[in-house]
Structures are given as structure tokens and as C-alpha cells.
Design a protein that fits this description.
Helix content: 40-55%
Strand order of the largest sheet: 13-10-7-4-3-16-15-14
Shape: globular
Number of strands: 16
Strand content: 5-15%
Largest sheet: 8 strands, parallel
Structural class: alpha/beta
Number of helices: 22
């Protein structure tokens, strides 16, 4: 038992040896260690007490459902804003999400993954990046399906066509239409329910009480943001008059007293958003999904948003989150996000972050933590310096992992960590120990000789996918159109573009090698000779099916297919390093949900996945 006693002693700060002035090494006796531990309040009087005390030190593991212990599953990820339907107002909403979940469940899927649904800046339509939220505790009201309102009156055909027909989302037009619907339904709610004691009144009051001060502060921020944006100032608090930058100031208290109705409006919007999202989760599970919704958690928040205004002691100021230079970005990346304070996180045992995770898990079966390495370190760039001058700052890993695991266990939901990019040594081992699934992207999974990793060599504790929102779609990658885009906007000069095209042709050849070695080579590629370069062009359906089967045969617990790939989309959702050069976060799917259900590509690929990973009698 000495080894266990030593582990327990070290964990509680006892030195196992020391050197005397004469250079002699001395070690305390086991009895001395036991007595010191007892004095510290740590039971260590017997071998059993030592074992129990050690067990108490082990951080909790994240939840894993029984069916996933030995089985496997699959699902579909999408950019919710990009969903098309004959009923939405120019961007996807929670009703579209519920319908997509029912469609996917019918095809055998266990989850629907979405982009971050965090609250952005309702007062500024142009701040629409889902990864630059105002608050990670609350939702973007633009996803509310307003045609479900009792007061709903459909806009005229011209207004509807103006938002539904274009290939790109016009957020300004969408907000104008939705704001009219919000105001009408809130007026109706006040007339028929507020203060009446009706079921709707009690449910709203319960939501307010449950979310407490966080909701009060958020709604207050939204009301202030609305007022200042309306007079030409910034929607974010950095551009507000100084008197309103402190939520405890007299000016803010006066505003709060005078604008109770408007503050209530923004709290009411959050209630509706959470209600509709929870409804989508209920419908996903009722349709047969075993996880349902799989939400995405951004790595930080906008420096001038609601979270930094309402919780100033919880965030670091004067720095932005980014990433160091790498093979894809020679100058590094500046994400412009404010990080949580590592000191604040350590002081409260990670509970600040745990609450953010818990808020997401309240209406989901899984959460993906973007840039999960933030649990142990973040690359921070001081204001006034460029991204090459950033510094890695350590975060309290053990406290954060424990807080995430507790939230996961309470909700009965799994945690996925996006661990792409520069990963610290031993971090993935810490993820596995905590039960956090890793993220494995087909394009990046290579052996040392550059060949694509074969399915049997993927790790078990992960979710596998072909691509992500920051990478080319499968069709874009196969055709090389993403390389054309980079050259067209000046990200690659002609020499670099040529080199990239040569490499892409070689990578297509390596895909053929991998499919051949796994017995999945499709007929459309069967006539190519091993030494021949593989042309780009259109991706054949049987190749898409073969690649889906390739991923499905990995031991990874989960596999995710991008809806953009199932819907025949060539262009990517986001091109990192661009702002106006590429229409980031605005692209719609080429097909409506109804058309998607009948799409031959959708049917062929999902059928293959259901065959490879059936929902029952599944074995890894």
C-alpha cells in the first residue's frame, strides 16, 4: 500500500523526501504520512481509507450512454442558418432543425450537429459569425420560427421572395421581417398572458427564475444595445457612453427602471428560443435518434458583447484569442475573441465554464467544444500586436475537465472536443481519461508516409468526419474549386496555387489507394491506373458512397456527415483568414428540406451509413 499512500501524499502536497544540510536524503515514514494526511482531513488510517481517498481524487468522466459503450452511431452536421424550406424567412430556423432531425432519424441517424447557436448582436445584422458570439449562455433569436406564432401574418410575396430566393442570406432583410413578427407576438403575449396566471405566464416566469441574474443582465444588455445602435452608436459596449459601460453604474440602474418592458421583451425572446430548441430535441428523440441535437460551443466571445459586459471579472481584457503560424496560415490567426480569465476559472474550480457547457447541454444530447485545447492553454495576442506575437497561456486543465464532466453527467450528454491544430503533448491522453471524444477529419488522418490512414487504424474514442465548416466540402476538395477560390482572392499566388493543385491530384490518388486497400474502390474510379494522376471534376455518387463507408468502418464511436456534402454543395461555409473576400456564414443549401429528402445523393449515402452502422445489433 506504500505506493498508493505515496500517491495520496503527493496529491495533497506532502514531500516524499528531502535533503539535509549534510546532503543526506531523508524520507518520512508511512506512519508520519498517514498522520499528516489525517491532520489535513484526508482519511488515511487504513488501506481501504487510502483507496477511497485516492478514488475521490479521480476527476469525474464525461457521460457515455450504454448503447455507445460497445456500439457505434452516425449523424449529420449542418449550418442551421443555411437550411432552405418553403416556410422559413430566408434562413434556417428551429422548425427546420426539427424537420431535418425527423428526416435524418428516418434514415438511421442518431444526431444532428449544428453550428454555434449562441446569441450574436440582434441590433447589428452584419455581425453574423456564429463563432463570435455576444454571449455563450443564450441563443440567437433569429433562429425562432416565427410562423409558429399565434399572431403570425405572412409578409407579402415580394418580401418573401426577396429573402428566400437569393443564394446568400440577407441578414438585414431577415431581421426586419422577424422583428415585425417578434413585436406583434410580444404584444399579444402581454395582452393575453403576462400577469394573468395562465400556463404560458407561469412558464415564462419559471424560465426567468431559473436563469436568474444571467438572464436579467443579458436582457438588460440587449435593451441597451438596441437603444445605442438605434442612435448610430455601436451595438457593443465598447462604443457606448462611459456611464453605461459599468452595469452597476447609476445610469444603467436608471435605464433598467425606465425600460422594464423592453428588458422583458429580450428575456421573452430567449424563452421562446429555448422552448423551440428544446422542442426540436424532443422531436429528434421521438423520431428515433439516440442523441438528438449536437450543439457547438465557440471558444470565446466578442470583446464588446454581453458576457464581457455582465461578467467583467470572468474575462481577460487587452488580449484576443488566436492561433500561431502553421502550414495553412503563415502569419497565424487572430480570432478577435475575448477569453475567460484563467485566474477566475481556477478560483471557482472551473464553474464559470461548467455553467456555459451546462446551458448548452440542457437542450442537447452532445456538445462539441471548439478548440478544446483551451481547457489547458490558449494562444493570446496582446492588443496592438499581430498574431505572430502571441503567447500561450496555461489554463487550469483539471478543474475545467472536472467541471465539464460534472455538467455532462448531470445532463446525460456526451462531450466532443475539436482537437485539431497545435495540440499540446499528452493533452489527447487527458481527453481520453476524461471521456471526451476527439475529432478526426479524413483529410488530415495520414500515416507518416503521407498515405491516408486506413479505417482500422483510427482511434475508438473519437468522432470521424470528412470535412468541417472551415475546410472545403467534399465536392470542392475533389474538384479543386477551393484552390481556385484561394487564388482568385489572392490568398495564393500562381506558383503556390500550382503547387497546391499538384498536391491535390496526388491526394486524390492516395484516396484511390486507400479505397482499394479497403475493398471500397467504386466503379467510377476502377479504370484508372495506379500511376495515373486523378482528375478533379464532378465527384461521382459512388465515390461519395465509398468514402462514407470508409469512415463508417472505422472503430470511432461516432461518424458525422456534412449536410453540405449530402446536398451537393461545392462551396464551403467559411474560409479562415477572410472577411469580405468570401461570403462566410451566408451560404444556403442548394436544396430545400423537401427536395433533400428525395435527393439521390442523400438517399444513397445515408443508406450506406445505415447499412454500415445499423441502429441496433451494432458492433465495433
Amino acid at each position: 500500500m506504500t505506493a498508493d499512500l505515496d500517491r495520496l501524499a503527493e496529491a495533497h502536497g506532502l514531500a516524499l523526501s528531502y535533503f539535509t544540510e549534510t546532503g543526506e536524503e531523508r524520507s518520512p515514514s508511512d506512519e508520519a504520512k498517514r498522520r499528516i494526511l489525517e491532520a489535513l482531513g484526508i482519511p488515511a488510517g487504513s488501506d481501504e481509507e487510502i483507496r477511497q481517498s485516492l478514488a475521490a481524487l479521480e476527476p469525474p468522466r464525461c457521460y457515455l450512454p450504454a448503447w455507445l459503450e460497445e456500439g457505434r452511431g452516425w449523424g449529420i452536421t449542418c449550418q442551421l442558418y443555411g437550411l432552405r424550406s418553403d416556410r422559413n424567412l430566408g434562413m434556417g430556423d428551429f422548425e427546420d432543425l426539427a424537420q431535418l432531425a425527423e428526416l435524418a432519424a428516418g434514415a438511421g441517424a442518431d444526431f444532428i450537429g449544428v453550428n454555434p447557436l449562441h446569441s450574436l448582436f440582434l441590433a447589428d445584422p452584419l455581425r453574423f459569425s456564429p463563432y463570435s458570439p455576444s454571449s455563450r449562455h443564450f441563443l440567437n433569436p433569429l433562429y425562432i420560427a416565427v410562423d409558429r406564432f399565434e399572431s403570425w401574418t405572412e409578409p407579402d410575396r415580394e418580401a418573401l421572395d426577396a429573402v428566400r430566393t437569393p443564394e446568400l442570406i440577407d441578414y438585414e432583410a431577415v431581421i426586419r421581417l422577424k422583428q415585425v413578427a417578434f413585436e406583434a407576438e410580444f404584444a399579444r403575449f402581454k395582452t393575453h398572458h403576462l400577469g394573468s396566471g395562465s400556463d404560458r405566464d407561469r412558464t415564462f416566469a419559471s424560465f426567468q427564475a431559473e436563469r436568474g441574474a444571467l438572464l436579467e443582465d443579458f436582457a438588460l444588455f440587449e435593451a441597451l444595445s438596441e437603444v445605442f445602435a438605434g442612435i448610430g452608436l455601436s451595438c457593443g459596449w465598447h462604443g457606448w457612453p462611459d456611464a453605461f459601460k459599468d452595469k452597476h453604474g447609476d445610469a444603467v440602474h436608471t435605464f433598467k427602471d425606465e425600460k422594464q418592458d423592453r428588458i422583458r421583451f429580450h428575456a421573452w425572446l430567449q424563452w421562446l428560443a429555448h422552448e423551440q430548441l428544446a422542442g426540436a430535441q424532443a422531436r429528434a428523440l421521438a423520431a428515433g435518434m439516440r442523441l438528438g441535437l449536437y450543439l457547438d460551443l465557440a471558444v470565446g466571445v466578442a470583446p464588446d458583447g454581453a458576457d464581457t459586459w455582465s461578467q467583467p471579472d470572468a474575462v481577460l481584457r487587452g488580449v484576443r484569442v488566436g492561433s500561431p503560424p502553421d502550414a495553412f496560415n503563415a502569419k497565424g490567426q487572430d480570432w478577435g475573441l475575448a477569453p475567460l480569465s484563467p485566474r477566475a476559472l481556477a478560483a471557482d474550480q472551473g464553474r464559470i465554464f461548467g455553467q456555459i457547457v451546462a446551458d448548452a447541454l440542457a437542450v442537447a444530447g452532445a456538445v462539441r467544444i471548439d478548440h478544446v485545447m483551451a481547457l489547458t492553454r490558449l494562444y493570446l495576442i496582446p492588443d496592438g500586436l499581430s498574431s505572430v506575437d502571441g503567447v500561450y497561456v496555461q489554463f487550469p486543465l483539471h478543474q475545467l475537465v472536472a467541471a465539464v464532466a460534472r455538467a455532462s453527467q448531470r445532463a446525460g450528454a456526451i462531450i466532443i472536443g475539436e482537437d485539431l491544430g497545435t495540440v499540446p503533448p499528452n493533452f489527447r491522453e487527458a481527453m481520453r481519461d476524461a471521456g471526451i471524444l476527439g475529432y478526426r477529419v479524413l483529410f488530415f488522418e495520414r500515416e507518416r508516409d503521407g498515405r491516408f490512414r486506413l479505417p482500422q487504424n483510427y482511434e475508438r474514442e473519437a468522432i470521424a468526419c470528412m470535412s468541417t465548416h472551415d475546410l472545403p466540402t467534399l465536392r470542392g476538395w475533389w474538384s479543386g474549386s477551393d484552390l481556385d477560390d484561394r487564388e482568385a482572392i489572392g490568398m495564393d499566388d500562381p506558383a503556390a496555387a500550382s503547387a497546391h493543385r499538384i498536391q491535390r491530384s496526388a491526394d486524390r490518388q492516395l484516396i484511390i489507394v486507400a479505397l482499394t486497400e479497403t475493398g471500397l474502390l467504386p466503379e467510377s474510379l476502377g479504370n484508372l491506373k495506379p500511376e495515373e494522376p486523378v482528375p478533379g471534376g464532378e465527384l461521382a455518387q459512388d465515390t461519395a458512397v465509398a468514402l462514407a463507408r470508409f469512415l463508417a468502418r472505422t472503430p470511432c464511436r461516432l461518424v458525422a456527415l456534412q449536410l453540405e456534402d449530402l446536398g451537393g454543395m461545392r462551396d464551403r461555409a467559411n474560409l479562415p483568414g477572410t472577411v469580405n473576400e468570401h461570403p462566410n456564414w451566408r451560404r444556403k443549401l442548394p436544396l430545400t428540406l423537401d427536395a433533400l429528402a428525395g435527393s439521390p445523393d442523400f438517399q444513397a449515402v445515408t443508406q450506406a451509413m445505415a447499412e454500415e452502422r445499423p441502429r441496433r445489433h451494432d458492433h465495433p
